[in-house]
Amino acid sequence: MGFNPLRVGVIGASSTYGWARNSHLPALIGLPDLELLSVCTAHEKTASESAEIFGVRNSFYDYRDMLKDPDLDAVVVSVRVPYHHQLTMDVLRAGKHVYTEWPLGSNSFEAKQMSEFAKSAKVKNMVGLQARAEPVFLMAKEMLEDGYVGEVLSSRMTLFAPGILSRTSLDMWQSNKGKGANTFTILFGHALDALCMCLGEVREISAILSTQVDKWEAVDTRQVFDVDSPDNVLVHGILETGSVISMHVATVPWHGSGYCFEIYGSMGTLVLEAPNHVQLGNLTLRGSNSKNRELTLFQIPDRFKWIPCELQHGTVFNVAQMWRKFAESIRTGKSIQPDFDLAVHRHVLMDAIERASYTGERQIL
Questions:
Q1: pLDDT computed for residue 50 by the predictor
Q2: For residues 85 and 103, what is the distance between their CA atoms, to the nearest angstrom?
Q3: Helix, strand or coil, per DSSP, at residue 334
Q4: Angle at the Cα of 130 (from 252 to 92), degrees rounded to 5?
Q5: How far apart are CA 326 and CA 336, in angstroms?
Q6: Where are any strands of DSSP class E within 33-191?
Q7: What is the helix (H) or strand (E) element at residue 224, kind and residue range?
Q8: Helix (H, G, I), strand (E, B) or coil at 358
Q9: CA triple 271-276-279, angle to 5 deg
């Protein structure tokens, strides 16, 4: 039986800048069971330009006007983190399903408010932890559950991303830790959730958060900004399963080595790697165990890919996968992760990591 496409509006739909331009907008245009109904930016001119470029009939520069549209089913909130709370709460008040980018809020208090209100509003919600739709992570999780490495004993994850000194003035707001978007909340947050997805939740944690580069110079204006947001995050801990973990995530000036996640078990090893951040995709999966001593590159089966082939590349890949899951949840009424409840759980864990760094004491969750 056929069904009408899910009609979606995007808040933060700039045609020249931002995450939505390279992820949500092409995903919504390319998925046959969704319709990009509306775009919204902060200015009338940019909203009209986005509507023309992306072939959308409705454009808004006040998101509250967009939310009045009775034809609108769901909304993307893809703007700077400090605005997530207000916009998401307004979407929920309007009775629309909502997909809000990660971090869900600027802090765990905001995230809890959003999660609780979403329950009372009885609408579906999703947070942008898109590693949970990444085929490589899905395959690794299945292999771990099937016993490929035996009992997981330990794991090590590193992510070194270049670019800390190549920011424009538009990105300088990220120098302020209180704004909620930095190496800890973004790079580390995505990588942490991917680790927990594969291996389970954390029981005990110790940490160091450090700001190694305390001044940024904007490459376009040459203005210098003081920095208090962390650029290095070092964590070690114990999972609920008893296995031990080590994580080091950093933004560095030059030649970052990318992402590497090694999982060591009683019977084998898995290695996940990417040249960039976890949320940008392009991962590979290799493994060896007692049956095959050589570290072998695995091909990812098509059953982990839920979207058309033309969307299976780059930034749009995992976001399109997420939208396929979200649309299914809205149509069937079934709960699905990553939702706001999971986001709260992740915020609380990251609060514990901050406390561990601030106090120098191991935190028990």
A1: 95
A2: 10
A3: coil
A4: 115
A5: 7
A6: 34-40, 58-60, 74-77, 97-100, 125-127, 152-162
A7: strand 224-226
A8: helix
A9: 90
Say whether 266 sits in a helix, a strand or coil. coil
Cα pseudo-dihedral 103, 105, 107, 109, rounded to 10? -140
For 318-341, how does the pLDDT look when each residue is reduced to its tens digit (9 = 90+)? 999 999 999 999 999 998 899 999
* Location of structure tokens 């990318």: 258
* Region of residue 343 (left: phi > 0; alpha: psi -120 to 50; beta: else): alpha
- pTM for the structure as a whole: 0.95
Contact residues for 57 (Cβ-Cβ < 8 A; gap 6+)? 37, 51
- Token digits of residue 106: 């600027």
The Cα 271–Cα 258 span in angstroms is 13
Q: Which residues pair with 228 in a beta bridge?
A: none
**261-315 pLDDT, tens digit each:** 999 999 999 999 999 888 777 899 999 998 777 899 999 999 999 999 999 999 9
Tell me: pLDDT of 2 over 80. Answer: no
The rounded distance, in Å, linking the Cα atoms of 329 and 174 is 33
Report how far residue 340's alpha carbon sits from residue 139's, in angstroms, rounded to the nearest whole number.
Answer: 24
How far apart are the C-alpha atoms of 159 and 175, rounded to whole Å?
20
* CA–CA dist 34, 298 (Å, integer): 32
Measured CA angle at 106 (ends 103, 107), to 5 deg: 95
Contact between residue 146 and residue 197 where contact means Cβ atoms under 8 Å apart? no
Q: For the range 173-177, what are the long-range contacts, defined as Cβ-Cβ under 8 Å and sequence gap of 24 or more? A: 173/80, 174/229, 175/216, 175/225, 175/226, 175/227, 175/228, 175/229, 176/228, 176/229, 177/228, 177/229, 177/230
Is the bond leading into 103 cis (omega within 30 degrees of zero)?
Answer: yes
Q: Which two tokens stand for residue 342?
A: 């999971």
Give the distance, in angstroms, between the CA of residue 126 and the centroid of all CA atoms in the same chain.
11
